[in-house]
Amino acid sequence: MTLAEHFCLQRTLSQKTEGICTMEPANKSEISPNSFLLMGIPGLEHLHIWIGIPFCSMYVVAVVGNVTILAVVRAEQSLHEPMFLFLCMLSVTDLVLSTSTLPRMLCLFWLGAHHIAFEACLAQMFFIHSFTAMESGFFLAMAIDRYVAICEPLRHATILTHSRIAKMGAAVLVRGVAFFSPHPILLKQLPYCRTRIIAHTYCEFMAVVKLACEDIGATKRYSLSVAFMIGSCDCLFIAFSYALILRAVFRLPSREARLKALGTCGSHVCVILVFYSTAGFTFLTHRFGHNVAPQVHIFIANMYLVVPPFLNPIVYGIKTKKIREHVLSSLRVKLS
User: Fold this and answer.
1) Phi-psi region of 112 (alpha: psi -120 to 50; beta: other; left: phi over 0)
2) Residue closest to 135 by CA, chosen among 82, 86, 100, 67
3) What are the G-protein coupled receptors family 1 profile domain coordinates in residue numbering (predicted)?
4) Burial (Cβ within 10 Å: 0-12, 13-18, ≥19) of residue 61
5) 270 or 120: whose pLDDT is higher?
6) Nearest one of 222, 16, 37 to 118, comparing CA atoms
7) Dihedral of the CA atoms 94, 99, 104, 106 (nearest 10)?
8) Helices 82-99 and 118-151 sit at what angle, rounded to 10 degrees?
């Protein structure tokens, strides 16, 4: 018995009132199906329980770490600087991104909760794509902050005022919402007359759109072009800002000054590489990687949603002296 047939049998036994589940396309299309079935990681179903353990651990660290950063920056007046304000925006984005996917994913891995309501699926899809775009935008904003801090240190406070920081954050937010709001709207209008089984651990756009029974070429092109445009533009501007930073750093007179300047950018570069490498792999797999094993593609797709929210607070917490010192001092007070 195949996994898809197992899902059909399971659904027939648990929901007899819904009729018979078949593997053939339904004769009657459904504009808004009541629910989808998330398959998980195909071929690794027997390891779902064990896979869920590191995912849960990373989620706990992501929540605790990002909440800690928000609390520290809010409590410490000296941290109300552009770098830390952008870091707070990134932390909020990470919290929403991880919370919109990980709890539901863990229910699938540990409780076998494969069903997801159609509206919940669309909402999850919107949060994933829009907040991923926001994360990319905040990485760009932080790169701009590092450029101004290193290349224009005397004008840093006058260029990146709180008003401009708020406008940059609002622009990133509006961009993410505006470009990806059409996703759930377009999918809600499509007729679904094929199987309702989504070969994924969450409601990924391409996995859902393939279930429609009409031509989806325009919808797929819109999604891929928007993702490519946002990702490539942000990467291009980040690379350009760091090229200018490197040029300015290597013009500094002393080796100590160069190392100190590069040290302020090290944590940012680390998390950027992790985010864009996993996101880029997922995008290219959708476009060109037809021979990539499904479990490899889905596992990497999970990593790009799980690892950055987990890694960001660790990297910034360890590498940023002010945050590290404030957390350690708070722990000493509580322990004493």
Assistant:
1) left
2) 86
3) 65-316
4) middle
5) 120
6) 37
7) 70
8) 160
Strand partners, 117: 35
End-to-end CA distance of the chain: 61
Average pLDDT in the 44-73 region? 92
Q: Where are the beta strands (DSSP E) in 182-238?
A: 197-198
CB 148 within 8 A of CB 161: no
Token digits for 305? 């949603």
Domain spanning 33-331: which superfamily?
Answer: Rhodopsin 7-helix transmembrane proteins (1.20.1070.10)
Residue 287: predicted pLDDT: 62
Nearest partner of 182 among 218, 132, 229, judged by Cα: 218
Interior angle at CA 130, CA 34 and CA 275, nearest 5: 120
Query: Percent of the chain scored above 90 by pLDDT?
Result: 36
Rounded to 5 degrees, φ, ψ at 313 are -65, -30
- Using one digit for the tens of pLDDT, what is the confidence trace for 18-31? 333 333 333 334 44
Strands (E), the chain: 35-38, 115-117, 197-198
Domain coordinates of the chain in residue numbers? 33-331
Structure tokens at 91: 């932390």
H/E run at residue 249: helix 217-249
In the numeric block, which tokens belong to residue 22?
């078949």
